[in-house]
Amino acid sequence: MEGKSNNIFFGLLGKNISYSFSKNYFSKKFINLKLNHHKYVNFDIEDIQNFPEIVSKYKTSLKGCNVTIPFKESVFTYLDEVDAIASEIGAVNTIKVTNKGRLVGYNTDVFGFENSLSPLLKTHHTKALILGTGGASKAVSYVFEKLNIEYYKVSRNPNDSKQISYRDITFDLLNKYTIIVNCSPLGTFPNINEKPNIPYQFLTHNHLLYDLIYNPVETAFLIEGKKRGTQVKNGLEMLELQAEESWKIWNK
């Protein structure tokens, strides 16, 4: 069935993605819209160098891809064009295959994160900590800059003035930085007992904890926050919003 001209293919490009949100989401969407020839598949590859093989295999039947860990940055090398936002962020999570076969990169994580976070923001939410420095953290920091929210990225090995180490997270710092976003994979199923190493005892009802992870629904990170009365939000709505934005791009 794969590669036949009567099927239109979309897919998720990533590594170890059998758990894929995207495949389930879009497969249901295609059924609901009665798009019987639309197929969504997982392109589970070990190395980004295998990506051209996928493009070649599906030829004219491939219309778009989502991109996840760990290829949001390395995929740039294989694209013909990258839109302004994705270029500024330095991470791509959506690829459109044009009618001429050109590969164009976009970032819809920005749309998803901003629109899922904004309704939760209160007047005291003016500073944020971003846990992790990978591709997803770049979209989060882009949104914070857009919203004029000061932030630090927290890294095990900080290497610039916008990064701090986990050891730097003190009571005084947390008193000011009341948004904390987990962009690391810690706590993802099946390792549900893992969580970022921050001093949870200093959290209060003024804090907002946002975890990009959606499986499990409540990560150990969010559970620690709830114990202390914080606002919490997982990454499911962000994923749904970015998926719909991807769908719009593919159908432009």
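Above is the first protein from milestone M3; the second protein from the same milestone is given next.
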Amino acid sequence: MDTTNSTIKGKAYEYACVLALQDLVSPIREIEIVENESLEIAKARYDNDIAEQDKSDMLLSARSGIQAIIEMEPKIIEDDNDRLTISLQPDSVATKLGDIRDVLIIRRELSWEIGVSVKHNHAALKHSRLSARLDFGNVWFGVPCSQTYFNEIAPIFAKLKTLKDNGELWRNLPDKEASVYVPLLNAFVSEFNRLNGSGSITADLVKYLLGSNGKDYYKLIHNNNHTATIMPFNLFGTLNQTTDATQPIIIIPEIELPTRIIEMTFKENSKTTVILTMNNGWSISFRIHNASSKVETSLKFDIQLQSKPEDIFYINREW
């Protein structure tokens, strides 16, 4: 799926989640849906850009995923007189504040809220980029990259600029792994290890990769295999609260975060992926790839949770 189509379906799925919440909760308590630009965009994508079968699938998926979240969050349907507020957040809160929650579920009278990060058919943590000028160290964990790193990557991106100016396509570069991916990843790994050696970056890196910004959240993934995947990220112990009368049906443990980076190395027999290994059972993969058929002057990472502590679990619900 191309990036544009993926973005459209992601926005449409956000609106499907709003509809599912409204459908499941409105028989129990009053619902307020915040009318903002984010809601307008998501609704327009759902109404105008999605085939009828996809709409039906998204609604079934969203309903099954939201039902699972309700089983972990009884405050959503607690029998009370206050209003439940549903709000979609703009993308800018993720880019500027690191808050990746798309859907907020709020009870203002209790000063209580939970957030849901909505994904359509992918489970990536991030899609971060590398370029000739982008300082990944400063953006990811607040430690600037060295001039040595920028000197190492300059010839690679200069070559890409020439190819881009000539309108070259990636498929016409038979040596792209050897001439672009491997040297760029070598420079990236060397700089990452250099920055890690200069001081503790683990906490800020995890905060960036998980997109928490100090907030716990659920990740809800629509899968094309007729399942919805729900992953709780209970990093700070605020999820899974009981009510005066009800315990959650599903109990979520608090996650033990990594405190130390062990190593970052190439994945065995791979020229496109490096693996970051940390303590407490965490490892994260960084796969570099071109996000367009045409050569561009930046490359994108597909960053995935490779292994995780037992405290992070996921639920698959069929729809």
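Note on the second protein: The longest helix spans residues 3-25.
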